[in-house]
Amino acid sequence: MHVEGDTETYRLWVLERLLNKRIIRRGRGSSTEYLARWQGWGPEHDMWINAKELDHAPELIDAYEENANRNVTANGTPIMQRAQAVVILAR
Fold first, then answer.
1. pLDDT attached to residue 17
2. Strands (E), the chain
3. What span, in angstroms and rounded, lies between the C-alpha atoms of 20 and 79?
4. Spatial separation of the C-alpha atoms in residues 46 and 34, rounded to whole Å
């Protein structure tokens, strides 16, 4: 989907749900990434997104974390449920 602006065209990507989470250690620090599924796209287009890039969608991260903590199999593997969709603007 394209959105016409005053001088620029933006492409809208709809984030369908967060599938997984990983923490990347870098020196003394770390960063958190979430595996995202895009609405209308298959698993081959899933991608890891830094949590800082999702700062406009705290409800999506909260939904993922709540489901991950509540829905765990006997061996500790999270069972993911569908989260709310959020729109991300990208050039």
1. 86
2. 2-4, 9-26, 29-38, 47-50, 86-90
3. 10
4. 10
Amino acid of residue 75: N
Token pair 């999506």: residue:
60
Q: What is the pLDDT of residues 31-57, one digit of tens each?
A: 999 999 888 889 999 999 999 998 887
Q: Please give the Cα distance from 27 to 35 (Å, whole number).
A: 22
Structure token pair of residue 9: 């065209």
Q: Which residues contact 7 (CB under 8 A, 6 or more apart)?
A: none
Token pair in block for residue 46: 């899933």
Domains of the chain: 2-90 (2.40.50.40)
